[in-house]
């Protein structure tokens, strides 16, 4: 019961902090619109690269353009939602180095909520919108034999994928408590992970696919559930039921990330500045 109360308190604090930054950001609305449009264009360049590639080939490891677009859209939409919610966490290292992290520790507000809501920006929504647009096109263009399970799995996959990426952001922030300057290491798993997931698993070596399935379970963001939706072979010949375990994987990742965060926070020693 106390744990539940702490979670609700953290969510309430996060909402208040994020709302404050939203009101601040909307002060200059023209700047907000131009920046949001810029984010849409910049994130869309990744998909332009895929389109250029398919202008020279008919398929990629046996996957058609709509099928690769499905992977791209699912990955980018999930990451975009997570980045909107927790995109400030890679900046924790700079807060630790300049001593401002100590200020967060003495406030009567959960530290994780403060770090997550810090400099919240609606401009980040551009990535999720752009990914959702590509995913919507892929759902129409791909040759999918729609069933009830496939219809339900698409939104479930996107939300579970977002939760997995949020867990990575939190775990990465906890790692920065120890390393203090590890934003690029964290980005390698978050930004690098979403880029990898935009392509079929057959493009990569089996050892890498095993690693992102059984060690860092990014494959459950889109590769595994997409296999069911698109009727493609499952990565590593996994059984069919694994397409539906993404929510359980996400819950496990979030629980583990929370444990890592609490451990890191208890071991924090001020830099003294």
TrEMBL record:
TM regions (residue ranges): 32-57, 69-87, 152-175, 238-261
Q: Does the keyword Transmembrane apply?
A: yes
**InterPro entries linked to this entry:** ABC-2_transporter-like
Q: Name the domain of life.
A: Bacteria
Which UniProt keywords are present, listed alphabetically? Membrane, Transmembrane, Transmembrane helix
Against Pfam families, the record matches this protein to: ABC2_membrane_6
Protein name (Swiss-Prot/TrEMBL): ABC transporter permease
